[in-house]
Amino acid sequence: MSAADRLALLIPAYNATPWLERLLASAKAQTQPFDEIWVYDDCSSDGTAELAERLGARVVRGEVNRGCSAGKNVLARRTTAPWVHFHDADDELLPGFVALARRWMAADAADVVLFPYEERDDRTGEHIAWRRFDPADLAADPRSYALREQINPFCGLYRREAFLAAGGHDEDPLVLYNEDVAVHVRLAFAGLVFAAETEVAIVNHRRLDSMSAANAMKCVQAQYNVMRKALELPGAQAYHREIASRLWRNAGLLAAHLDWETADRAAALAARLAPPAPADGSALFRALASISPAGALRVREALIRLARPDARAGYPRRAALAGARP
Question: What's the rounded mean pLDDT across residues 110-125?
């Protein structure tokens, strides 16, 4: 195998001892092997680095906790493999992943390949859903697709040189909990060629205590900052409709968490870009938003809490109209 065909598995990890062995076992069970396996230990306190070394991975130890984006960038710069795959420590690979990846590497027709995946309940192993990417939609306009779709951090194959030239992961703490969307938007606007695999070779294990599940408000706040920063990218003016639509949905999620300050910012920015479309809300919401985006958010949230209180179970319980603006 030539040096150009090498593939590295890069794993950012923080206190990952409960799951890391499962992932590394699935990596070693591939029908074709990874050429390198790296783990970035983000200043763990549970022996993550020692476990990774014992299981045969190359380990880079962080001196301070910097988050998964910084860890991925460190590993991408450390490896010399021309192709890389990032994977969360608590997820899993099916045996055919590397073989599928090598087909794309040999074809040399894309810089980023998105792989579909299965979602399973981590506690029971029960199948939850499949997630697939539309190859035609993705290839037609990667920028639009990256703005519209959630592309998770464990499902991509990347040409390392192009990934690094585009800037890698955004290490801004404001986007940390939505860094997966941020990086794919960045790569798409940098002009990288995207493609989509159709065969499932990845398992995403859903956990109630995962980083995203345990930090729901931080995730939706980060979504706002990702879209805000997307507007600064060259060529973003052609995608105001997509960014606005994402912001309208984001404002609704922020309202559900009663983070009115950020919700109002998201709605005001969305309103400047484009009015809400039918997919962004009801006819009543769209009419109210044309008069007062902040007021429309509060009326909708109050109606949801009145008519469907179960839809807000687990959310903050303060009055939904608190802090209403004219």
Answer: 95
